[in-house]
Write a structure and sequence with these properties.
250 residues; alpha/beta; seven-stranded parallel sheet; 7 helices; 15% strand
């Protein structure tokens, strides 16, 4: 287990975020599960408890204004006993439409959740880590941040922005003992997602892994990154994507 003891994982009521929450709890972290759905959040907390882990749920609305996000950061800190040692930015909004079809509401939501919220929460929580001389922040990026797509251009742009923020935070907070890194999943299949088998097959046909990844595979990399075993890893982007961002078979 890491010398860090508490972890806040945004967007952790389902998918990759829930897997990260379970993985960190399994290594001894007291985890704050957060998201919009109280029902799903309670289910993740209960699952962690069944495996002898420690977790608590706090609802969040990450598209809120900065002042409200700072209040959430304060509440999260209180819920974790007064300090947040690890922060994982997993929550994201992905409008799967082309540019002309993107609504103003989806534009605002994606920018707020994918860029503004991570920035505000890091600004609120990283200084405390730096003051204690230890901590870790992980951004969940995306393989799509490095390619152009006709249907998720805004999502890709926000993920590229978030990955660049992580590099800047690594430079800003690293000298004070706070490590900041990115884990970028590829095609990842969560049980609750609606991605069709045909779409998955098409996306993974030309990659070395020949299959979609799982949330647990992404979570395992996050758990390693925040552990003492990765103490010398700063400012890295680690692709957990089956090779989709770096290789082509045909």
């Amino acid at each position: 287990m890491s010398t860090s003891t508490t972890a806040l994982v945004t967007g952790s009521t389902s998918g990759i975020g829930a897997a990260v929450a379970r993985a960190l709890a399994a290594t001894g972290f007291h985890v704050l599960v957060t998201g919009r759905s109280r029902e799903r959040g309670a289910a993740v907390v209960a699952d962690i408890a069944r495996h002898q882990g420690a977790a608590v749920f706090l609802p969040s609305e990450l598209e809120r204004r900065p002042a409200e996000l700072r209040r959430f950061a304060e509440s999260a800190t209180d819920a974790l006993g007064g300090h947040v040692d690890v922060l994982v930015h997993c929550a994201a909004v992905c409008p799967a439409v082309d540019t002309p079809a993107l609504t103003d509401e989806d534009l605002d939501a994606a920018l707020a959740v994918n860029v503004r919220a991570p920035h505000v929460l890091t600004a609120a929580l990283a200084p405390g880590m730096a003051e204690r001389g230890r901590g870790a922040i992980v951004v969940i990026g995306s393989w799509m941040a490095g390619v152009g797509s006709p249907f998720v251009g805004l999502y890709s742009a926000t993920k590229a922005a978030e990955i660049q923020l992580a590099r800047s935070w690594a430079a800003e907070f690293g000298p004070s003992g706070v490590r900041v890194n990115t884990v970028s999943p590829g095609v990842t299949r969560a049980p609750e997602e609606a991605l069709s088998e045909q779409a998955v097959r098409s996306l993974v046909a030309g990659i070395p892994a020949r299959r979609a990844g799982t949330p647990d595979e992404v979570a395992a990399t996050v758990a390693w990154l925040v552990s003492d075993a990765a103490a010398y890893v700063h400012g890295a982007e680690i692709p957990v994507d089956g090779g989709i961002s770096s290789t082509r078979l045909h």
